[in-house]
Amino acid sequence: MDLHIDLNGRRGHRDEIYRQIREAVLDGRIRDGDVLPPTRELAQRLTVSRTTVSAAYELLAAEGFLNARPGAGTFVRSGAAPWPAEAAEQSEEAVRPRPEWTTVPSPPRSFGSVAEYDFRAGVPDVRLFPFDTWRRLMTQRLRASQADLLMYGAPQGDPRLREGLARHLGVSRNVRVRPEDIDVTTGVQQTVDLVARVLLQAGDLVAVEDPGYPPPRLLLGTLGMRVAGVPVDGEGIVVEAIPAGTRVVYVTPSHQCPLGVAMSLARRQELLDWGERTGAVVIEDDYDSEFRYTGRPLEPLHSLDSRGRVVYVGSMSKVLSPALRVGFLAAPPSLVGALTKRSTSPTGTHPRSSRLCWPTSSTKAASRATSGGCARSTAGATTSSSTACAASSATCSTPYPRRPGCTWALRPTAICAWWPAKRGTPAYACCPSATSR
Question: What percent of the chain is modeled with pLDDT above 70?
Fold first, then answer.
């Protein structure tokens, strides 16, 4: 243990060593069972005699703080250290966050048990994760013992990973994008943060769907933007209701959250025309587009955009696992330079992609994880979700009509349930009968 003791300018070294170790035990910095440095080592470090350190240790042992074991060392006695240490009371002069953060809700607690059918939004069936393939890819990369794996990667992410993503998006979503136009991030939240810092400044007006996915709205508000909610109907966001002066609009056209509607082709074209007319940018979160129960996916906004108004964002959280923290954006060529500068600037918030934690830095691994691997994972997850969908039809159909004002529907992309709630109530609806099963 690298125990810090300060004797500079102090007299009575034995008493000072005793006092500082005792305080470290009482305030929880040293826990039960921790091993203290040998007397000879600590004496050399503090440039005092070994007798002085031994005397301090003996006094602490006599008071029940330490326990010496011959041949093993000196340990903190069990029960001597209160844990966890009590937090100090905050004074009125304590550091406080900006007011915007007082309205942001605390993160939800994780569930203690795993349900047979998990209907939580944005949570994949982790039982389908290709552990064997992932373990093999990790082993292949680490066996190479390449020193560059421990260094910073390219600011936009590993080039071979971006090549794999460009191929995957082109084949599966008809998103025609060059690898150099892709930026790898840690997820959609960081992607929105990166785009906002490049395009917006505090006080700018941003539009989001209402009801809509809460995290981007909260994020943009904490950045000092004015965030306006725009209503959603059966065809998607109501374009004519977007406020004048809006600089950016964030939408989920393939699978609107939480209503589950897909934006119609006519509404998509209307939104693109609005962006061209006003000079605004559309952030397209292609959330959950890989999974459908029926029909074929509609064309993404990005594939219909011929004017460079759409920033396409997505992640691997639903296809593989949210624990991987891998997201991406496909930006118009006019924004690529600014996004790269923001990634490498001293105040940038976008970390360089770590090749060590993402083993698809090799061409083979990137191809497997972002092309065929994604397709296989999607197919398996869709089959699993379809089973849950069939089960929910019997489970949920009976209780739902009994809830006043409740509406539920089986969309091509999801099972959706919602009912009116007071402002401030979380916008996620759940079926008690389904979660109990």
Answer: 69
